[in-house]
Amino acid sequence: MTGVPDGAGADTPRAPLDPGVRALLDRWADQPPMFAGTAPGTTDGVPEARARFAAQMAEGAGPAPRAPERREAGGVAVRVHRPADPATDAVVVFLHGGGWVLGTGDAYDTVAARLADDLGALVVAVDYRPAPEHPFPAPLEDTLAAVRAVTGDGTRYALVGDSAGANLAAVAALTLRDEGRPPAACLLVYPPPDFEGRYPSVAENAEGYWLTASDVKTCSKLYLAGHDPRGDARLSPLRAPTLAGFPATIVATAGYDPLRDAGHAFADALAAAGVDVRRREHPTLVHGFYGFTAAVPAADTAVTALHAELAELLAR
């Protein structure tokens, strides 16, 4: 695994950027910034940004091995990915990234199919409504409606999300904990758990590593649409009144990611609350590596290890 286990070793001096990542970023160097032409309060530039994101995801993840089944759960569009070789009765609910704005089920079909095959589990990928057309709390409401519908019969389940999807997964886990039906496990890949904090990695990794500090700011503004995030745990799960009772969780971060330190802070807060949390840093990788497995061997290795660990948690 291209990563460092829990403990002091997770904060070793800066490792060199993985050469596979560098090659991928170099191929994209002449493309416009991801959010070029977008502005809060409008949809200007958003279709073009989504097209850029989808094209990069297609290159990074490669083609999906098979098409998903398109359904609804709780009135929300979902994409059902069946594993090639079923190995568990547990269901995995997947929440895609893209800053609550860019990602769609189409862009993440390969990622969700890989998750299904690696775990041998049925994966239900939620196609929540995106901002800015549907800002907060619409994506969260869709997430909760879909998860409740999928797990309403007492099905054992896990929540998996990357980036914005990891934020939604963490908030959903807290909500469902309070409803008495928490997930058995969570995998949160480079989560943004805190809209209020200021973290050094945002400045350290501000430019040149796919997700930029400007992207983080733009995504947040488009999602919030003027909503004040202060004191709202539906946006900042790190600031929930208590994290006790949160499910066993893997928090995966990347060394060259503006969100790295926020992910560390969430993992540390979970540990302080007595949660079984595994902090998995990948010091040579960037934000987005979860979807770069076809283009970056180190990303493929990292995702394989993360999925194997999640499978172990689900097997308990």
Primary descriptors:
single chain; 9 helices; alpha/beta; 316 residues; eight-stranded mixed beta sheet
Quick gist of this model?
This protein has a single domain (8-314), classed as Rossmann fold (3-Layer(aba) Sandwich), CATH 3.40.50.1820.
The backbone outline, from C-alpha atoms, is globular
The H-and-E topology, N to C, reads as HHEEEHEHEHEHHEHEH
CATH class: Alpha Beta
User: What's the count of strands?
Assistant: 8
For the biggest β-sheet, the strand order reads 1-2-4-3-5-6-7-8
Radius of gyration: 18 Å
CATH topology: Rossmann fold
Q: Which bin fits the share of residues in helices? A: 25-40%
Q: State the fourth-level CATH superfamily.
A: Alpha/Beta hydrolase fold, catalytic domain
Low-confidence stretches: 1-12
Strand content: 15-25%
Second CATH tier, the architecture: 3-Layer(aba) Sandwich
The number of helices is: 9
How would a crystallographer describe the biggest sheet?
8 strands, mixed
| Domain unit count | 1
Give the end-to-end Cα distance, rounded to a whole number of Å: 22 Å
**Overall pLDDT level:** 94
Structural class, judged by helices and strands? alpha/beta
Could you characterize what this model shows?
It is built from nine helices and eight strands. It is of the alpha/beta class. The chain has a single domain, classed as 3-Layer(aba) Sandwich (Rossmann fold), CATH 3.40.50.1820. An eight-stranded mixed sheet has the order 1-2-4-3-5-6-7-8, sandwiched between helices. Helix 4 packs across helix 5.
